Amino acid sequence: CDTFIGNYFYLHITNDNKKIVAAICAAPIVLGKAGIIEGKKVTSYPGFEDELVKGSYLEEHVVVDGNIITSRGPATAMLFAYKILELLQCDKWKNLSEGMLFNSLMK
């Protein structure tokens, strides 16, 4: 129980300070239960839409709304990771993407 409450507290502090909060697959449900997606665009693994009714659900691979980043599932993990790197202003993400041949998949 203490860990559960501590994680919610951490999510709120992170969100309140406009730090990146990222969740993939079913994890956006935690953001919904923590109350930090209200009025935000979000996505998740198909079938969890009903758990995210306080947000604006989109069926996109990766959704960014302010500091909240959500993604759909295992097949979108690389898109999710590169979006996080981009938003962290890690200037090497493009080189990494090219070196891993990820860009060629997206053409």
Detailed description of the structure:
The chain contains 5 helices and 5 strands. It has helices spanning 2-16, 28-33, 77-87, 93-99, 102-105, and strands at residues 21-24, 41-42, 56-57, 62-65, 68-71. It has a 3-stranded mixed beta sheet with strand order 1-5-4. The chain has a two-stranded parallel ribbon with strand order 2-3.
Task: Throw out a few tags for this protein.
107 residues, single chain, 3-stranded mixed sheet, alpha/beta, globular, two-stranded parallel sheet
Major β-sheet annotation = 3 strands, mixed
- Beta-strand portion reads 5-15%
**What's the arrangement of strands in the largest beta sheet?**
1-5-4
Number of helices: 5
Structural class: alpha/beta
Low-confidence stretches: none
- Please give the alpha-carbon distance between the first and last residues: 46 Å
Average pLDDT works out at 90
**C-alpha Rg (nearest Å):** 14 Å
Q: Choose one word for the global shape.
A: globular
SSE order in H/E notation? HEHEEEEHHH
The helicity comes to 40-55%
